[in-house]
Amino acid sequence: MASSDDGHLSSHPCIYVGHMPPSRNMRRSWFMKWISKLFGGGSSRGASNGRRLRISGEENTFWHEPARSMDDQSKAEKEELDRAIALSLAENGKRRNGQCDNDEDLDRALRESLSMSASHPYNPVQCVPRDSRVCGGCNKEIGYGHYLSCMGAFWHPQCFRCHACGLPICEKEFSLSGSHPYHKSCHKELHHPKCDVCHQFIPTNRSGLIEYRAHPFWRQNYCPSHEHDNTPRCCSCERLETRSVKYISLGDGRSLCLECLDSAIMDTGECQPLYHSIRDYYEGMYMKIDQQIPMLLVERQALNEAIEGEKDGHHHMPETRGLCLSEEQTVSSIHRKPKIGGNRVVDMRTHPQKLTRRCEVTAILVLYGLPRLLTGSILAHELMHGWLRLKGYRNLSPVVEEGICQVLSHMWLESEVMPESRSMPATNIASSSSSLPSSGKKGGKSDIEKRLGEFFLHQIAHDISPAYGEGFRAANAAVLKFGLRRTLDHIRFTGGFPE
């Protein structure tokens, strides 16, 4: 059937796509008909009342086309000629090479056919991408095929690569750092913090945040779980044992890292030169201690037993590492330096020693196995307790007594670690004794020993306990303002620090 009332005619070639294609003879007939029209000037138009038959859509349906003017007819004839040529060439191409599968083959066929007549030029529409796209990786134009659009640019799939490993990113999700894309795994490897103890990625908490612990001095970052999973901690520098380096067990519940072990003092005889050098330090500030006070290196258990035997005294909890003893006791001291075997000390020999009271101070006890600078700071602290008692300072509060003892410990450490950083906080007494020879020194200090000394200074300055921490800061402020001698005189007469 034909529809003469529609009037909406497409200007594009209408190629039949139904189930009954026209025969080859019919196509050839159409082609010859339009060739004759081309060279005959249109005198052989159909006479069916000024109307022509056209093929429509997907069915063998014909309709009448309204009569047109000469110009319209000429234009329509050109369009139909193009359509007939396309049909003919499509049939010929099918016989030669099979059905044309793309627009390029049809375009080439139309060009070749139109070269027959110079009076009917044909300019086919070029098949190009809708928008001009340039790859953000290789800076070349992106033609047909797959491409990516992200980060405000277009990319060939093979050009969108991870900034870390250089391989293409094929996953649906990626990570962005600055203006660089990463595989999520590569980004995590580079930017997600790892635990310094177990060397694994620090896990996120229930809120999805990365939560970890960090030592305030060493900046050792670690998983919160290591504070409760019995991971050994160095009793000297407080660093946790890593999975790659094992600490040394001292046999009394304490562990020691290898860096602290390098300068550790392990028996009483080894500690004697250091003890005498600190007594010289006091003498250089006109604070000589006349009495010969015994000094012993002891195990943790022996120190705790000695603390229990003391009637008076304030002790640093949870760990006390030194004691100025004033009662008569029998104490087991380290008689011979133990050996190291299998990450623990072995072959330790102790010797019981009965301490008798000859003055206000019976003995000074210090934990064995600590680095030289830490052992020296403990000795300087305990010797100040002895000096106060021998000089008649009575009934001092823990804040005052422990505070001024911490100041002397801090001063001695400074003279060892950074002798040029601070002049001796005294008025008319001696200058710094850091220039005095120390029989406990064995050549220059290593970098790690200096770093340990800085940590011990940090420990004293940032102690949070009321007596040792607040006491030190109050005593140190008074010494810096008034000098050590005037501060000690004020303590003697008032029991407190000058303000």
Task: Kindly describe this structure.
InterPro entries: DA1-like, DA1-like_dom, UIM_dom, Znf_C2H2_type, Znf_LIM. The chain contains 12 helices and 19 strands. The relative contact order is 0.06. It is elongated. By secondary structure, the chain is of the alpha+beta class. The chain has 3 domains: 24-114, no CATH class; 161-191, no CATH class; 263-494.
What are the main properties of this structure?
499 residues, alpha+beta, two-stranded antiparallel sheet, 19 strands, 36% helix, elongated, disordered N terminus
Please write out the topology.
Blueprint lengths: L23 H17 L12 E4 L4 E4 L5 H28 L5 H12 L33 E3 L2 E3 L19 E3 L2 E3 L1 H8 L21 E2 L6 E2 L25 E2 L5 E2 L1 H4 L2 E2 L2 H17 L10 E4 L1 H10 L12 E4 L3 E8 L2 E2 L4 E2 L2 E7 L7 E5 L2 E2 H19 L7 H20 L29 H15 L4 H17 L1 H11 L5
Parallel strand pairs: 12-18
Antiparallel strand pairs: 1-2, 3-4, 5-6, 7-8, 9-10, 11-19, 13-18, 14-17, 15-16
Helix pairs in contact: 1-2, 2-3, 6-8, 8-9, 9-10, 9-11, 11-12
Strand order of the largest sheet: 12-18-13
* Dominant shape: elongated
SSE-based structural type: alpha+beta
Number of helices: 12
Q: What's the helical proportion of residues?
A: 25-40%
User: What do the pLDDT scores average to?
Assistant: 77
- Which spans of ≥5 residues are poorly predicted at pLDDT below 50? 1-24, 38-70, 95-102, 109-128, 423-442
- Largest sheet geometry: 3 strands, mixed
How many extended strands? 19
* End-to-end gap: 116 Å
Q: What proportion of the residues form beta strands (DSSP E)?
A: 5-15%
The Cα radius of gyration reads 49 Å
